[in-house]
C-alpha cells in the first residue's frame, strides 16, 4: 500500500500529499479508538483511570465507540478508494489533471 502511495507521489506531488493527509486521518481515528477502548477496559476491570468517562453514562460511551468504529471504517475506505483512483489515473495512457482535495 505504501509503495502505491509512493508511486502516486512521484507521479503527482499534490496527489501524494493528499494521500499522506488521508492516511494520517485514518491513523488518527484508529489511535483514538484504541485509546478509548483501553480506557473503557481499564474502567470495567476496576483499574482507576481518571478520565471523562467518570461522568459519562454507559450508553454514551457505547455511542462513542460505535461512532469511532464507523469513522475508522469510513476513513480507511475513503483512503483506499482515493488511492486506487489516483493509481489507475497514473497508469492510464491518457493525461489526467488531478486536483488535490
Keywords:
101 residues, elongated, mainly alpha, 3 helices
Low-confidence stretches: none
User: N- to C-terminal separation?
Assistant: 20 Å
Kindly state the percentage of residues in helix. over 70%
Number of helices: 3
| Beta-strand fraction estimate | under 5%
Give the mean pLDDT. Answer: 88
How big is the Rg? 19 Å
Order of helices and strands: HHH
Main β sheet profile? none
Shape: elongated
Structural class: mainly alpha
Number of strands: 0
Task: Briefly characterize the structure.
75% of the residues lie in helices and 0% in strands. Helix 1 packs antiparallel against helix 2, helix 1 (2-11) packs across helix 3 (58-91) and helix 2 runs antiparallel to helix 3 (58-91). The chain is built from 3 helices and no strands.
Describe the model.
Helix 2 packs antiparallel against helix 3. The longest helix is centred in the C-terminal third of the chain and has 34 residues, at 58-91. It contains three helices and no strands. It has 101 residues and is an all-alpha fold. 75% of the residues lie in helices and 0% in strands.
Amino acid at each position: 500500500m505504501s509503495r502505491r502511495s509512493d508511486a502516486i507521489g512521484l507521479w503527482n506531488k499534490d496527489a501524494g500529499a493528499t494521500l499522506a493527509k488521508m492516511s494520517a486521518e485514518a491513523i488518527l481515528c484508529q489511535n483514538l479508538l484504541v485509546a478509548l477502548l483501553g480506557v473503557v477496559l481499564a474502567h470495567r476491570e476496576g483499574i482507576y483511570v481518571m478520565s471523562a468517562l467518570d461522568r459519562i453514562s454507559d450508553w454514551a460511551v457505547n455511542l462513542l465507540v460505535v461512532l469511532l468504529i464507523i469513522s475508522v471504517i469510513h476513513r480507511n475506505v475513503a483512503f483506499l478508494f482515493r488511492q486506487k483512483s489516483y493509481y489507475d489515473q497514473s497508469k492510464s495512457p491518457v493525461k489526467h489533471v488531478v486536483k488535490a482535495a
